[in-house]
Amino acid sequence: MTDSSEDRRTAWEERYNSSERIWSGAANAALVDVAGALEPGRALDLGCGEGADAIWLTGRGWRVTGVDISQTALDRARVDATTAGIEPRHIDWVCADLTTWQPEGSFDLASACFLHDTHGFERAPVIARAAASIVPGGHLLIVSHAEMPPWANAHHHGQMPTAEEEARMVETAGGVWEAAIVEVRRRQATGPGGQRAELADNVVLMRRAAR
Ligand SMILES: C[S@@+](CC[C@H](N)C(=O)[O-])C[C@H]1O[C@@H](n2cnc3c(N)ncnc32)[C@H](O)[C@@H]1O
């Protein structure tokens, strides 16, 4: 069954309100690795959560739009950006449901890091709209769980796309794309109960061919 936008928003608000912080506050390692090698421009962070990736990008000269369905997450992101000394004009925080949100303008980089949702979220059209907003020569980065973390509820998350399937979502959006990275990376992580585990992430970097 597909949840309504309001159901999705309520569920994420409840999750964020269950704790003062959910995420570590550190930018995702794959984003740091990939974006650290790119010339800064305009970036779009899909499902930016508490804002660590957007803040990291802004600190490296990117002008960022961070989109999330949770206003609570965005309020935390805004506070952290202010604490980090980021000028407000360098980050736009947009509270919207990505299943219907249309990017305005064009971007040199879009990233979807762990844009997972258990509430009837159809990922392919969201990725396709982001892909359509990428300029020639620009990049789209997807980082997602290749296997569910042991502490997650696998039943709720259902089947996870493979790295190859993530890459195809970008290609089917139209335009000519080069697959720069399509792989599974392993990393050590700490779960909500402090438990340690090795996690497997899909890391997919697609480059839109220059005209
Ligand atoms: C697993 S968290 C990842 C957060 C962040 N990207 C990170 O890596 O730490 C997924 C995020 O996507 C957001 N999200 C889920 N479904 C969404 C939707 N339909 N529209 C906008 N944001 C959504 C959630 O609110 C949450 O902040």
Short account of what is shown:
GO terms for molecular function: methyltransferase activity. With 211 residues, this protein is α/β, with parallel strands linked by helices.
Fold and architecture overview:
- The chain has about 210 residues and is α/β, with parallel strands linked by helices.
- The chain has one domain (about 5-210): Vaccinia Virus protein VP39 (Rossmann fold).
- Helices cover about 30% and strands about 30% of the residues.
- It is built from seven helices and seven strands; from the N terminus they run ααβαβαββαβααββ.
- It has helices spanning about 5-15, 30-35, 50-60, 70-85, 125-130, 155, 165-170, and strands spanning about 40-45, 65-70, 90-95, 105-115, 135-145, 175-190, 195-210.
- It has a seven-stranded mixed beta sheet, sandwiched between helices.
- A hairpin with a 5-residue loop joins strand 6 (about 175-190) and strand 7 (about 195-210).
- Helix 5 (about 125-130) packs across helix 7.
- It is globular and about 45 Å long.
- The model has no long low-confidence stretch (mean pLDDT about 95).
- The structure holds S-adenosylmethionine.
- S-adenosylmethionine binds near residues 49, 67, 113 and 117.
- This is Methyltransferase domain-containing protein.
- Keywords: Methyltransferase, S-adenosyl-L-methionine, Transferase.
- GO terms for molecular function: methyltransferase activity.
- It holds the Pfam family Methyltransf_25.
Number of domains: 1
> Which stretches are poorly predicted, pLDDT < 50 over at least 5 residues?
none
The helix fraction, in percent, is 25-40%
Query: CATH topology, what is it called?
Result: Rossmann fold
Q: For this structure, what is the CATH class?
A: Alpha Beta
Oligomer type: single chain
Ligands (ions, cofactors included): S-adenosylmethionine
| Biggest sheet: strand arrangement | 3-2-1-4-5-7-6
DSSP strand content? 25-35%
GO molecular function, one term: methyltransferase activity
Domain Methyltransferase: 44-138
Keywords: Methyltransferase, S-adenosyl-L-methionine, Transferase
Protein name: Methyltransferase domain-containing protein
